[in-house]
Specification:
single chain; about 240 residues; alpha/beta; 6-stranded parallel beta sheet; 10 helices; 6 strands
Protein backbone atom coordinates (compact mmCIF):
# COMPACT_ATOMS: atom_id res chain seq x y z
CA UNK A 1 0.00 0.00 0.00
CA UNK A 2 0.98 3.64 -0.49
CA UNK A 3 0.11 6.99 1.06
CA UNK A 4 -2.61 8.07 -1.36
CA UNK A 5 -2.64 11.57 0.12
CA UNK A 6 1.05 12.22 -0.46
CA UNK A 7 0.94 10.48 -3.84
CA UNK A 8 -2.06 12.10 -5.47
CA UNK A 9 -1.73 13.72 -8.92
CA UNK A 10 -4.78 15.89 -8.31
CA UNK A 11 -3.19 17.65 -5.31
CA UNK A 12 0.58 16.92 -5.41
CA UNK A 13 2.40 20.13 -4.42
CA UNK A 14 5.52 19.11 -6.38
CA UNK A 15 3.81 19.07 -9.78
CA UNK A 16 3.55 21.73 -12.46
CA UNK A 17 -0.10 20.85 -13.11
CA UNK A 18 -2.66 18.65 -11.41
CA UNK A 19 -4.68 15.98 -13.19
CA UNK A 20 -6.90 12.96 -12.55
CA UNK A 21 -8.41 9.94 -14.31
CA UNK A 22 -11.33 12.18 -15.30
CA UNK A 23 -9.09 14.92 -16.71
CA UNK A 24 -5.68 13.78 -17.99
CA UNK A 25 -4.75 17.09 -19.63
CA UNK A 26 -2.29 18.05 -16.89
CA UNK A 27 -0.16 14.96 -17.53
CA UNK A 28 1.48 16.36 -20.66
CA UNK A 29 2.10 19.69 -18.91
CA UNK A 30 4.15 17.84 -16.31
CA UNK A 31 6.05 16.07 -19.07
CA UNK A 32 6.96 19.34 -20.75
CA UNK A 33 7.98 20.86 -17.40
CA UNK A 34 10.19 17.85 -16.67
CA UNK A 35 11.86 18.04 -20.08
CA UNK A 36 12.61 21.73 -19.49
CA UNK A 37 13.89 21.13 -15.95
CA UNK A 38 16.29 18.41 -17.09
CA UNK A 39 17.44 20.25 -20.19
CA UNK A 40 15.94 17.77 -22.66
CA UNK A 41 14.39 18.91 -25.94
CA UNK A 42 10.73 19.76 -25.36
CA UNK A 43 8.97 17.08 -27.38
CA UNK A 44 5.63 16.16 -25.82
CA UNK A 45 5.00 13.55 -28.51
CA UNK A 46 8.20 11.65 -27.67
CA UNK A 47 7.83 8.70 -25.25
CA UNK A 48 9.62 9.50 -22.01
CA UNK A 49 10.88 6.57 -19.91
CA UNK A 50 11.87 6.87 -16.27
CA UNK A 51 13.73 4.77 -13.72
CA UNK A 52 13.70 5.51 -9.99
CA UNK A 53 15.72 3.20 -7.78
CA UNK A 54 19.00 2.38 -6.12
CA UNK A 55 22.14 1.78 -8.14
CA UNK A 56 22.06 -1.80 -7.02
CA UNK A 57 22.36 -5.24 -8.58
CA UNK A 58 18.90 -6.08 -7.20
CA UNK A 59 17.31 -3.29 -9.22
CA UNK A 60 18.61 -4.61 -12.56
CA UNK A 61 20.59 -1.46 -13.31
CA UNK A 62 23.09 -3.57 -15.25
CA UNK A 63 20.33 -4.54 -17.72
CA UNK A 64 19.51 -0.87 -18.25
CA UNK A 65 23.18 -0.13 -18.75
CA UNK A 66 23.55 -2.77 -21.46
CA UNK A 67 20.20 -2.00 -23.09
CA UNK A 68 20.48 1.80 -23.24
CA UNK A 69 22.72 2.04 -26.36
CA UNK A 70 20.26 0.00 -28.41
CA UNK A 71 17.20 1.70 -26.94
CA UNK A 72 18.53 5.19 -27.56
CA UNK A 73 18.93 4.40 -31.24
CA UNK A 74 15.14 4.65 -31.24
CA UNK A 75 13.35 7.99 -31.00
CA UNK A 76 12.90 7.97 -27.25
CA UNK A 77 14.12 9.92 -24.25
CA UNK A 78 15.26 8.10 -21.15
CA UNK A 79 15.11 9.89 -17.80
CA UNK A 80 16.90 8.28 -14.89
CA UNK A 81 16.77 9.13 -11.23
CA UNK A 82 18.83 6.91 -8.97
CA UNK A 83 18.54 6.63 -5.22
CA UNK A 84 21.99 6.04 -3.78
CA UNK A 85 22.12 4.19 -0.49
CA UNK A 86 25.32 3.58 1.44
CA UNK A 87 28.46 4.07 -0.60
CA UNK A 88 26.72 3.52 -3.89
CA UNK A 89 28.01 1.75 -6.98
CA UNK A 90 30.67 3.95 -8.56
CA UNK A 91 30.70 2.10 -11.88
CA UNK A 92 27.05 3.00 -12.41
CA UNK A 93 27.69 6.63 -11.49
CA UNK A 94 30.48 6.70 -14.08
CA UNK A 95 28.22 5.01 -16.61
CA UNK A 96 25.54 7.67 -16.13
CA UNK A 97 28.02 10.45 -16.78
CA UNK A 98 29.23 8.68 -19.91
CA UNK A 99 25.65 8.12 -21.10
CA UNK A 100 24.78 11.79 -20.61
CA UNK A 101 27.88 12.86 -22.55
CA UNK A 102 27.11 10.45 -25.39
CA UNK A 103 23.35 11.16 -25.54
CA UNK A 104 22.95 14.79 -24.47
CA UNK A 105 19.51 15.12 -26.04
CA UNK A 106 18.15 11.82 -24.72
CA UNK A 107 19.57 10.83 -21.35
CA UNK A 108 19.69 12.43 -17.92
CA UNK A 109 20.80 10.99 -14.62
CA UNK A 110 20.36 12.22 -11.05
CA UNK A 111 22.70 10.74 -8.47
CA UNK A 112 21.14 10.87 -5.01
CA UNK A 113 17.56 11.17 -3.86
CA UNK A 114 15.28 14.18 -4.14
CA UNK A 115 11.63 13.85 -3.15
CA UNK A 116 10.22 16.61 -5.41
CA UNK A 117 12.17 15.26 -8.40
CA UNK A 118 10.90 11.73 -7.77
CA UNK A 119 7.32 13.03 -7.84
CA UNK A 120 7.95 15.02 -11.02
CA UNK A 121 9.56 12.07 -12.80
CA UNK A 122 6.66 9.84 -11.79
CA UNK A 123 4.16 12.36 -13.15
CA UNK A 124 6.12 13.53 -16.19
CA UNK A 125 7.18 10.21 -17.69
CA UNK A 126 5.03 8.02 -19.89
CA UNK A 127 6.68 4.75 -18.86
CA UNK A 128 8.38 3.63 -15.65
CA UNK A 129 10.95 0.84 -16.00
CA UNK A 130 11.58 -1.60 -13.13
CA UNK A 131 13.83 -4.52 -14.14
CA UNK A 132 14.38 -5.70 -10.55
CA UNK A 133 15.86 -9.15 -10.01
CA UNK A 134 13.62 -9.58 -6.98
CA UNK A 135 11.07 -7.26 -5.42
CA UNK A 136 9.04 -8.48 -2.41
CA UNK A 137 6.55 -5.64 -2.89
CA UNK A 138 7.76 -2.61 -4.77
CA UNK A 139 6.24 0.85 -4.43
CA UNK A 140 7.36 2.75 -7.52
CA UNK A 141 5.10 0.73 -9.81
CA UNK A 142 2.17 1.64 -7.53
CA UNK A 143 3.13 5.32 -7.58
CA UNK A 144 3.44 5.13 -11.37
CA UNK A 145 -0.01 3.63 -11.92
CA UNK A 146 -1.51 6.14 -9.50
CA UNK A 147 -0.05 8.88 -11.72
CA UNK A 148 -1.09 7.37 -15.05
CA UNK A 149 2.47 6.30 -15.88
CA UNK A 150 2.64 2.84 -17.41
CA UNK A 151 4.95 0.36 -15.61
CA UNK A 152 7.20 -2.04 -17.52
CA UNK A 153 8.51 -4.50 -14.95
CA UNK A 154 10.30 -7.79 -14.56
CA UNK A 155 7.72 -10.44 -13.66
CA UNK A 156 8.90 -11.13 -10.13
CA UNK A 157 7.44 -10.86 -6.63
CA UNK A 158 5.28 -7.83 -5.95
CA UNK A 159 5.85 -6.47 -9.45
CA UNK A 160 4.18 -9.52 -10.98
CA UNK A 161 1.42 -9.35 -8.36
CA UNK A 162 0.48 -5.72 -9.00
CA UNK A 163 1.09 -5.08 -12.72
CA UNK A 164 -1.31 -6.77 -15.13
CA UNK A 165 0.06 -7.15 -18.65
CA UNK A 166 -1.94 -5.28 -21.26
CA UNK A 167 -4.26 -7.43 -23.39
CA UNK A 168 -5.73 -5.47 -26.34
CA UNK A 169 -8.27 -8.23 -27.11
CA UNK A 170 -9.91 -8.48 -23.69
CA UNK A 171 -13.37 -7.08 -22.92
CA UNK A 172 -14.63 -7.37 -26.50
CA UNK A 173 -11.67 -5.45 -27.84
CA UNK A 174 -11.76 -2.71 -25.20
CA UNK A 175 -8.55 -3.98 -23.64
CA UNK A 176 -7.43 -4.81 -20.12
CA UNK A 177 -4.29 -4.52 -18.02
CA UNK A 178 -2.18 -1.75 -16.52
CA UNK A 179 1.29 -2.26 -18.03
CA UNK A 180 3.74 -4.94 -19.12
CA UNK A 181 5.68 -7.63 -17.29
CA UNK A 182 8.59 -9.35 -18.95
CA UNK A 183 10.47 -12.58 -18.32
CA UNK A 184 13.13 -13.93 -18.34
CA UNK A 185 15.31 -11.23 -16.84
CA UNK A 186 17.37 -10.46 -19.93
CA UNK A 187 18.18 -7.39 -22.00
CA UNK A 188 16.32 -8.75 -25.04
CA UNK A 189 13.07 -9.40 -23.16
CA UNK A 190 13.29 -6.02 -21.42
CA UNK A 191 13.76 -4.22 -24.74
CA UNK A 192 10.91 -6.21 -26.30
CA UNK A 193 8.54 -5.09 -23.52
CA UNK A 194 9.70 -1.47 -23.80
CA UNK A 195 9.30 -1.42 -27.56
CA UNK A 196 5.84 -2.95 -27.27
CA UNK A 197 4.91 -0.23 -24.80
CA UNK A 198 6.40 2.48 -27.01
CA UNK A 199 4.55 1.28 -30.11
CA UNK A 200 1.29 1.17 -28.15
CA UNK A 201 1.91 4.71 -26.89
CA UNK A 202 2.53 5.97 -30.42
CA UNK A 203 0.01 4.03 -32.46
CA UNK A 204 -2.86 3.16 -30.11
CA UNK A 205 -3.67 6.28 -28.11
CA UNK A 206 -7.10 5.05 -27.02
CA UNK A 207 -5.66 1.82 -25.61
CA UNK A 208 -2.91 3.77 -23.86
CA UNK A 209 -5.39 6.13 -22.25
CA UNK A 210 -7.45 3.14 -21.10
CA UNK A 211 -4.39 1.69 -19.38
CA UNK A 212 -3.66 5.02 -17.71
CA UNK A 213 -7.19 5.28 -16.33
CA UNK A 214 -7.33 1.68 -15.14
CA UNK A 215 -4.10 2.15 -13.21
CA UNK A 216 -5.22 5.45 -11.70
CA UNK A 217 -8.55 4.02 -10.58
CA UNK A 218 -7.09 1.10 -8.61
CA UNK A 219 -7.07 1.22 -4.81
CA UNK A 220 -3.48 1.25 -3.54
CA UNK A 221 -4.33 2.62 -0.09
CA UNK A 222 -2.92 1.20 3.13
CA UNK A 223 -6.49 0.49 4.24
CA UNK A 224 -7.05 -1.82 1.29
CA UNK A 225 -3.68 -3.53 1.79
CA UNK A 226 -4.42 -4.07 5.50
CA UNK A 227 -7.75 -5.76 4.72
CA UNK A 228 -5.97 -8.21 2.41
CA UNK A 229 -3.26 -8.82 5.01
CA UNK A 230 -5.84 -9.64 7.68
CA UNK A 231 -7.58 -12.01 5.26
CA UNK A 232 -4.44 -14.15 5.08
CA UNK A 233 -4.60 -14.71 8.86
CA UNK A 234 -8.31 -15.52 8.69
CA UNK A 235 -7.62 -18.18 6.07
CA UNK A 236 -4.81 -19.62 8.19
CA UNK A 237 -7.13 -20.08 11.20
CA UNK A 238 -9.86 -21.69 9.11
CA UNK A 239 -7.65 -24.73 8.58
CA UNK A 240 -5.09 -24.88 11.41
CA UNK A 241 -1.98 -26.99 10.94
CA UNK A 242 -2.13 -30.62 12.03
CA UNK A 243 -0.10 -31.45 15.14
Amino acid sequence: GIDVNEWNPSSDKHLEAHYSADDLSGKVQNKIALQKELGLPVRPECPLIGFIGRLDYQKGVDLIRWGIPELLNDDVQFVSEFVMLGSGAKMYEDWMREAEAAHKDKFRGWVGFNVPISHRITAGCDILLMPSRFEPCGLNQLYAMRYGTIPVVHGTGGLRDTVQTFDPYANDGQGDGTGWTFSPLAVDSMLWALRTAISTYRDHKESWEGMMKRGMEKDYSWENAAVQYEQVFEWAFIDPPYC
